[in-house]
Amino acid sequence: MTLSWLSLIVSFILSTASVSGQKLYAPALSLHREDVLRDPKHAVSVSITNDFKTFFFNQTLDHFNYRPESYTVFQQRYLINSNYWGGTNSSAPIFVFLGAESPIDGALTRVGFLTENAAQFEALLVYIEHRYYGESIPLGMSFEEALNDANIRGYFSSAQALADYATIIMHVKEERNASKSPVIVVGGSYGGMLASWFRLKYPHVALGALASSAPVLYFDDIIPQDAYFSVVTRDFKDASETCYQTIANSWSEIDRVAQEPNGSSILSKMFKTCQPLESGDELKNYLIYLYVRAAQYNDPPRYPVTVICNGIDEASATEDGILGKIFAGVVASNRSSTCYVNPPANLSQTALGWSWQRCSEMVMPIGITNNSMFQPGPFILSDFIDECNASFGVAPQPHWVTTYYGGHDIELILRRFGSNIIFSNGLQDPWSSAGVLKNISESVVAVYTEKGSHCLDIISGNQTDPDWLIMQRKTEVGIIKGWIAQYYSDLLAFKQ
Amino acid sequence: MTLSWLSLIVSFILSTASVSGQKLYAPALSLHREDVLRDPKHAVSVSITNDFKTFFFNQTLDHFNYRPESYTVFQQRYLINSNYWGGTNSSAPIFVFLGAESPIDGALTRVGFLTENAAQFEALLVYIEHRYYGESIPLGMSFEEALNDANIRGYFSSAQALADYATIIMHVKEERNASKSPVIVVGGSYGGMLASWFRLKYPHVALGALASSAPVLYFDDIIPQDAYFSVVTRDFKDASETCYQTIANSWSEIDRVAQEPNGSSILSKMFKTCQPLESGDELKNYLIYLYVRAAQYNDPPRYPVTVICNGIDEASATEDGILGKIFAGVVASNRSSTCYVNPPANLSQTALGWSWQRCSEMVMPIGITNNSMFQPGPFILSDFIDECNASFGVAPQPHWVTTYYGGHDIELILRRFGSNIIFSNGLQDPWSSAGVLKNISESVVAVYTEKGSHCLDIISGNQTDPDWLIMQRKTEVGIIKGWIAQYYSDLLAFKQ
């Protein structure tokens, strides 16, 4: 097995990111489903965006140093919906959505937790875009310009992003005479990590955090590197044992066919590819991507894993053997397509930006060692460092996240430190393997569902939502209500 | 009253710092008394330094960014005394002294809290030098070179210093197989602020903090700007009402004499100055410095405030009027001198370094408005900004400390967040006016004495120490023992 094939599998894929000619893959941390995975009935009225007013804040480029360049300011975008706000006199709460590795626009319509609960909390809603994404790119540069400048992209870090959020939240509170309004920060995936870290680092700015599907433990040696793919495997096994076996057996079959004369063209024909395959690896990457995405976004009511497995299980075995079944799975998940195994779309900001974030500090050692329906592909740090060096000229800092934010022995550390964090997860989400799944203290708590997928709790509600999802959201709202009630009571006691 | 005179008084003095031709003054935040203020019996054997081994750590210049320059490393000094350590198997604790705005050397002999308690805790002792002081100056530069380079001095910040401490502590724990050893950080004055902030920002690195005389509330608008000088005034009033009155009346008398023909030379003769005075202001600055220093370091058994007041009160009034009395106070505090009102000594690293830290982020608005034995001199932020701009070409960031570390409503915020911090103070210390003097929660507590001075509790013990000081130290040790006992019990429970 060649190194490049290993690195393909181990680090993984949502969008294939090719930077400086070097391929880098990572499972998406995004909460945004692609439309193909969504139930069409799920569509939310875009009129929701009309309720938001857009602002730009003069943000400090570098909060932690006092070099002349540090004082440079750039325009950071945030949006406010004040339709529901109870106002200054009631010290009504402020819900802040912490943008993550994509433009903030998508969150306005897709993240329902804030808009759907604003009325009952009389909350002001603030959505802040993460620096270097969307319209919040320093120095008036394009995203590509900023990311290609070794000096400028150097300010693209999580600690800077958290400090950005703190300054904007304090600015909004001051502008609206809301100094006593409790702030609840909400984020999903990478944004969920940011939310939990924000409560830990800035408790004087945020009263509490809802950290949805935040894989805060996927750093350093805290959890086994195969945690992510073990859950993907379990999801398929749980959906169907025969489906799981078929997939597990398919990789060597692809390898076998690929090695035949004209192997790639046989596979291209078999899978009705839109463009001829260049190798068996190309097909395998596509399939891994398909399965991982299905597991991560295994949302009700369709449950993409079940859709794929039904396709696989219901295919006639006699027709094309194992690969015929695999193809039936592909077809089942893409009913509207006329050809498959599409070439990679244009690189998204998310894919490119996250490549940088992974290569600098967000070093998540995701590999496949065993107990998996995939071929093995361990994460090898030295290879990863080489790849990052080749792409960006920097060595990843694999210990920085645990140094700055912690993570080791999190139960021991946080049982007597910190408060007011919800770590929410759905156990079908492979990222939940790196989530906090135990209550750590009275107010640092885990709220999870057996069947939930990635960030499902904060995604907009749907008429078809199952009871367990409705209950999860209610539980979270109840906990946040408790924090706010206690805060108001403290506030009264404090004034006396 | 001219602006320069105002700024002389308001910002104040320990060493007169002249940077780029602009004078900048600030009360010292150092825990180090000058020898003249110390009881000679207080001398600690320097053999204590033989127990320490010196190390240098390859420290990252910029922890928060990933610019090419960020990866530069420099040599940071730390020292370890392992004579008392219980070792890996016992998970014996590690006491870490966080260096502040001076070379670390002085702390080895003067800070007794760690060495005097090491045996009973079987603690490893680690003293870490603050970046840009002593031998921990980046890029092999001299202190002056680093401070004169606008780019390099830009990395001289408290957030970087805390991250330095975290990386060195984690390195020491790893090297000594001490991953389960609880860490207690100790610091005084600015170092005390760092200690409390370190526990808040890095709870996964330090189990608890002893923050001695840490004026964490002297930022933004948290406390009135005249808090510091109010306590100086109260100290003198408490020592002697007549002494206080004499001092209060002396300033206008100095002004009157100074305005006479040859006024400066009359004052020079009256005060037996080592060099002729250039102005009345020079004398006033010297006196303010003398009184402030006496109040801040009003240590037993001599109690410098009482010494000065006895000198003032016992002087024959008939001899030279008010100024004769004032001069008698000067003489009383400097018995070994043959002349007085010495010209400023060479600028210390502390004075220069702290000027930079104040002008960048440690903006403490210290002024004199009323209720003081001094002439008024309010802190005017715009003037301060102008001075800093003239000196360093940067605008101070007066809101950064409260943004990053908090401070407003500290009781409200920390009553349900954080744990294991002792804020210790002596109420005679003018800095105690900005200290935490109330228990905030069960384990974020205030331990203070009515008679204590600046950082007295962590200074080496002395045979003449009064009972209240011995008790304060015992209380602190008892609290830390409690934290460690609870930690060991948590550790056991956690393993099960």
Q: How would you describe this structure to a colleague?
A:
Two copies of one chain form a homodimer. Chain A is built from 17 helices and ten strands. The first copy, chain A, has helices at 3-11, 105-110, 112-121, 143-148, 158-175, 190-201, 227-239, 241-259, 263-270, 280-296, 304-314, 317-333, 349-360, 381-392, 400-404, 410-414, 467-495, and strands at 17-19, 22-24, 53-60, 73-81, 94-98, 124-128, 183-188, 208-212, 421-426, 444-449. In chain A, strands 3-4-6-5-7-8-9-10 form an eight-stranded mixed beta sheet, with helices on both faces. In chain A, strands 1-2 form a two-stranded antiparallel ribbon. In chain A, helix 8 packs antiparallel against helix 10 (280-296). Chains A and B meet through helix 5, helix 15, helix 16 and helix 17 of A and helix 5, helix 15, helix 16 and helix 17 of B.
